[in-house]
Specification:
The protein is of the alpha+beta class. It has 12 helices and 19 strands. Helices cover 32% and strands 25% of the residues. The two termini are 12 Å apart.
């Protein structure tokens, strides 16, 4: 590492301070275009300006602001790396929290607040590393495109997708990217500490299902009741047991789990291995198959009126290569009389877990935890890397954290009392610095 022990300490302390300051700016994204990243974008810009880094504020709609900066590398002819985060957070019901969700409070060894793990911790680490470089005159091995996107929490319409569509020239010469939800630790059976690098993401198919029937008085017998029809449909979908489908990423992940725990690796039945993953099993378990969950219902307008139509929203998520299979299964379960309208659709991603970028991530983690075991994993959700893939940019989730064994990390995303461990954040910024220095 290029930094002195004193500079490393300064890097850690600045990451903590920046994380707190970012949390204290409530950049809430309410969806449907209702969001405001202007204040937090200006804050990020001010932190870049303080150390003499040029930037561009890009407003895609009123108050929807992105921050872009280009960091020149030692070899500008090499393909560059996009280092990106998002500035928005999901809404919060403050009454449910034990602390002020926008206080950035330090308590019990954690920084608390909305965005602490999603993803103002990574934003803080990115800023701290780039600012330190500027202060000491360091150049990374290759060009880095530093971006803080708006609107990630609502599909990136005013953030990553807007920039890819309207400002594609920004990304010229950049072929790889790293961002959120990866590089964090989980402790499995045998006290093995794995670091999960996100190499794949499920795709999205949100759809609205509508049944039609005969309207009438609620006191009559009505075999053509739209609500009854819909209830049957969503019950079939909600209870359907999706078959396991082995992906490249899950093959590598679960083979390592079997190796570390002494279990049999049966690629046709990976579920028995989930018991070794602790609280991470809930999210990882959702990546063994396609999924489809009924999430919203709409029918009727009066207690004694049978409505002519009823509808439900289904949150469908498909594995890489399984897009057609998910939709066909939904059609089969719904039946021919049900109207299916696609609300939101997005691709799945899967990158090869090999090459110089992957080696740099693995080496950086091991440099700070020699007992750590980096592995690829498939995420049930999605990130801004989906938008960047439209330009051929290959992205990974790498926002490193070393986490306490008993922390239910995945439940903190969009959850109550969101928080990030201070020691984990210190570890993370050291890993990120090591990675960026050698990538």
């Amino acid at each position: 590492m290029i930094l002195t022990p004193q500079q490393i300490l300064e890097l850690e302390e600045e990451s903590i301070r920046l994380c707190q300051e970012l949390i204290r700016i409530p950049s809430v994204n309410h969806g449907d275009g209702l969001g405001d990243e202007k204040e937090i974008a200006n804050f990020v810009a001010s932190k870049l300006s303080e150390v003499g880094i040029d930037y561009e504020l890009i407003e895609s709609a009123p108050n929807r602001v992105n921050v872009v900066a280009r960091i020149e590398g030692k070899d500008p002819l090499r393909p560059g790396l996009v280092l990106h985060g998002h500035l928005d957070v999901v809404p919060v019901n403050a009454a449910d929290w034990s602390v002020d969700p926008f206080g950035g409070e330090i308590k019990d060894g954690f920084i608390w607040g909305r965005g602490a793990v999603d993803m103002k911790d990574m934003d803080a680490m990115m800023l701290a590393c780039i600012r330190m470089w500027k202060r000491i005159g360091f150049k990374p091995p290759r060009n880095i495109l530093l971006i803080f996107f708006a609107d990630e929490e609502a599909s990136g319409t005013f953030g990553s997708r807007w920039l890819v569509k309207h400002r594609p020239e920004i990304f010229k010469g950049f072929t790889e990217a790293i961002s959120e939800v990866g590089g964090f630790s989980i402790t499995i059976t045998g006290n093995n500490r794995l670091y999960l690098i996100e190499a794949a993401q499920k795709g999205i198919q949100w759809m609205k299902l509508t049944t039609k029937g005969t309207a009438g008085h609620g006191s009559f017998i009505n075999p053509d009741n739209s609500v009854t029809k819909l209830s049957d449909v969503i019950s079939r979908i909600g209870k359907y047991e999706w078959p396991e489908v082995l992906t490249k990423t899950n093959h590598l992940f679960f083979k390592k789990i079997a190796e570390l725990t002494g279990e049999i690796y049966d690629q046709k039945n990976l579920r028995p291995l989930l018991k070794h993953l602790g609280k991470a099993s809930k999210m990882i378990g959702a990546t063994l198959s396609n999924t489809a969950n009924p999430t919203m219902l709409e029918a009727g307008y009066k207690a004694n009126v049978i409505p002519q139509s009823a509808s439900a929203v289904i949150d469908g998520r498909f594995l890489p290569g399984q897009e057609k299979e998910l939709m066909q299964t939904i059609k089969n379960l719904a039946g021919g009389d049900v109207e299916i309208e696609m609300i939101t659709e997005d691709i799945a991603l899967e990158a090869e877990f090999s090459g110089d970028l992957v080696d740099a991530m693995k080496n950086a983690l091991i440099s700070q935890d020699e007992d750590g075991i980096p592995v690829p994993y498939l995420m049930s959700g999605g990130t801004d890397n989906k938008a960047l893939s439209d330009l051929g940019i290959v992205g990974f989730g790498f926002s490193p954290l070393r986490l306490p064994e008993n922390l239910d990390f995945f439940s903190l995303f969009h959850g109550v009392d969101e928080r990030v461990p201070i020691e984990g954040l210190k570890f993370g910024v050291r890993v990120l610095q090591e990675f960026l220095e050698n990538v």
